[in-house]
Amino acid sequence: MPKINILPAKVYNRIAAGGVVDRPYSVVKELVENSIDAGATEIEIYIEQGGKQLIRVVDNGCGIEREDLHSAFLPHATSKIAQAEDLDNILTLGFRGEAVASIAAVSKMTITSKTKDGKCYSLHSDGGELGQITEAAGENGTDVCVEMLFFNTPVRLGFLKSDKAEETDITNFVSRFILNRPEISFTYYVNGKKQLQSFGGGVEEALVGVYGAAALAQCFQIDANKHGIRIRGYIGNHNFFKANKSYQSVFLNGRYIQNVTISSAISNAYSGYMMKRQYPFYVLYIDVPTEIVDVNVHPNKADVRFADNKTIYGCIYSVIAAVLDGQTKALEYVVKNPGNPIYADESQPMAQLPVQEQEAIKILEDVKPEPAIDYAAILAPREKEEKEEPVKTEKVFGFTPISYEEAKKELEESSPAFILKKLHAELDEKKPTEPRKGFVPLDEIADYEFDEVVKPRRKTKKTAADLHKRFPDLYFNTAPFEVNDPSKKKEEEIDPFEANKKFLEELERKSKQNRIDVSSCVYAGKLFNTYIMYECKDDIYIIDQHAAHERLIFNRLKEQMNNRAVAQQPMLFPYELSTNIFELEFIREHLEEIRAIGFDLEENHSKVLITAIPLDLQHIDLGAFFADILSDISGYRSIRLSDLLKDKLASAACKAAVKGGMDLSKDEIDALFALMDGDMGLKCPHGRPVVVKMSRTELEKMFKRIV
Question: Residue 360 pLDDT > 70, yes or no?
Answer without folding.
Answer: no
